[in-house]
Prior knowledge:
The protein is α+β, with helices and mostly antiparallel strands. It is 17% helix and 39% strand.
Amino acid sequence: MSLPFTKMQGVGNDFVVVDEGDWADGDWAARARALCDRRFGVGADGLIVIGPSSRADVRMRFFNPDGTPDMCGNGLRCVVRFAHGRGRIGERGHVETIAGVRAVTVGTDGIVTAEMGVPHFAPADLPMRVSVDRVVDFPLPLDGEALPISAVSTGSTHTVVFVDRLPDDDLFFRLSPRIENHPLFPERTSVMWTRVAAPDRIDLRIWERAAGETLGCGTGACAAAVVARAQGKVASPEVTVVSRGGTLRVGWPGGEGDTVLLSGPAEIVFTGLWPDDPA
């Protein structure tokens, strides 16, 4: 039986999106591994499953390419675009996610804005095995040297590394997976290599846990902007975040209980039929 899917992307962060009503109950982790494979599957940074919710307009489940569940900001905006096009979300609505219910809006220009919740700085909330109140310029041990990092959870664990210029391939591919899998991060971490380009702009090179290098990352853009704002590296409460896949806008007033807003494009790339169910 052929099963329908939609390929979507937000700033180059690409996803296979399916409506769970079109698929039978099964192993979504196995489906993620099969569908996200870039040589033998559709190819994507993650699988998104959209279904009904008793708490919101729709429910989003996100799976990394290795099948692990996670939260995804660009994926959330793609869900909104998908559901809006099918009349399941209006210009304003709510989406249930693994990180909670998120309020969303769709602009007349097609830009999707999502509330991403309150950022969490405490190591226990990341999680990270360190005895500090916040992970700010923490000397992460790597081969006898210490790499200053900061960390925050914006629905997913992120490590922010501030640099004067974005890393070349040698540095990026050598250190990023080691940071991701560092024993201090029991659930691994994504790595946001971050350059402050202006008081209201940061540039990123992105390594996502379970996916490797990606062109964009919504929760990661939020994390980098929040950390930069919290540490006084940017002055504006609205920050332009530029990665290889495009540009996002992140808003965060800077208070402990303030919600992060993420805005950017979300687009359908193509639709198709999967010939067999891997689960």
